[in-house]
Design a protein that fits this description.
By secondary structure, the protein is an alpha/beta fold. It has helices spanning about 30-45, 65-70, 75-80, 85-90, 110-115, 140-150, 150-160, 165-170, 185-200, 200-215, 220-230, 235-245; strands at about 5-10, 15-20, 50-55, 60, 95-100, 105, 120, 125-130, 165, 180. The longest helix is centred in the first third of the chain and has 16 residues, at about 30-45. The structure holds 4-(N,N-dimethylamino)cinnamoyl-COA (DAK). 4-(N,N-dimethylamino)cinnamoyl-COA binds near residues 25 and 63.
């Protein structure tokens, strides 16, 4: 598949999407959001793919939604078109999705990373929600997902003052899973993604679904959901294969069935 604003590669069970608008620091315009969703549709459907990765350039994961595209929009425009509604679909993907962030992840770029299941970042990463400096507020989940990730005090401070958070603080705050030297970010992320892709996709998708429940329902409901999901996975061949492989002291060969 050929896209105008992204690159798509598939290797060893992993789909790698590279945002590719270097002239605008990968600012998210409507074409990019559309391309990204088409690529994710393809990867979610492709049975050879077990994990997906979104990355940008060394300087910028994405410097926000495209301000030049948004500047002249009016309320009826954005309300009637439900502006950026396609962005919500990114968070609804079923297979594991990792963000590999180097450089700026600002505004919509930070929100895009937060829509992924977890974030790895480079030591030069800078996260921020600077919408307030443009006279607007975060609108693709930033006030909600950042608060869930790092707590009220830091989320309030970042959104109200537009302060950017560096890689070390992002790791200490629980925003990112690990920090790598920028030259190693993509390689390390692909290694982790390949490890995920080797597993049963049924199990990895159920883990994703179950963890995401923790943000939506009460503890009791979440525990019930996890228990039933655990019970149901015993209907799969992959459960038999995984446990048999342990008993026989060999690598499991999962077939996603
Ligand atoms: N949009 C458009 N172009 C951008 C851009 C952006 N967000 N960020 C950078 N660029 C462009 C610059 O205009 C410049 O283009 P030319 O002038 O060369 O044509 C080029 O990228 C290189 O940028 P700089 O020359 O500025 O590079 P520097 O290294 O000097 O500075 C920077 C890097 C990241 C500090 C700076 O570019 C910057 O401050 N960028 C803007 C960051 C920002 O404010 N991001 C938040 C955007 S607002 C919603 C939908 C969306 C949103 C909310 C709601 N709804 C559906 C409700 C989201 C809003 C946002 O994300």
């Amino acid at each position: 598949m050929q896209f105008e604003t992204i690159l798509l590669e598939k290797n060893n069970g992993v789909g790698l999407i590279t945002l590719n608008r270097p002239q605008a620091l990968n600012a998210l315009n409507s074409t990019l959001i559309q391309d990204l969703n088409l690529a994710l549709d393809d990867l979610d459907r492709d049975s050879s793919i077990g994990c997906m990765v979104i990355t940008g350039s060394e300087k910028a994961f994405a410097a926000g939604a495209d301000i030049k595209e948004m500047a002249e929009l009016s309320f009826p425009n954005i309300y009637l078109d439900d502006f950026f509604h396609l962005a919500d679909r990114i968070a609804q993907r079923r297979k594991p999705l990792i963000a590999a962030v180097s450089g700026y992840a600002l505004g919509g770029g930070c929100e895009l990373a937060l829509m992924c299941d977890f974030i790895y970042c480079a030591d030069n990463a800078k996260f921020g929600l600077p919408e307030v400096t443009l006279g607007v507020i975060p609108g693709i989940g930033g006030t909600q997902r950042l608060t869930l990730a790092i707590g009220k005090a830091k989320a309030m401070e970042m959104c109200l003052t537009a302060r950017q958070m560096g890689a070390v603080e992002a790791e200490q705050s629980g925003l990112v899973a690990q920090v790598f030297p920028k030259e190693e970010l993509v390689e390390k992320t692909l290694k982790a993604a390949e490890k995920i892709a080797e597993k049963s996709v049924v199990a990895t998708m159920m883990i994703k679904e179950s963890i995401n429940r923790a943000f939506e329902v009460s503890l009791q409901e979440g525990l019930r959901f996890e228990r039933r999901t655990f019970h149901s996975i015993f209907a799969t061949q992959d459960q038999k294969e995984g446990m048999q492989a342990f008993v026989e002291k060999r690598q499991a060969n999962f077939k996603n069935n």
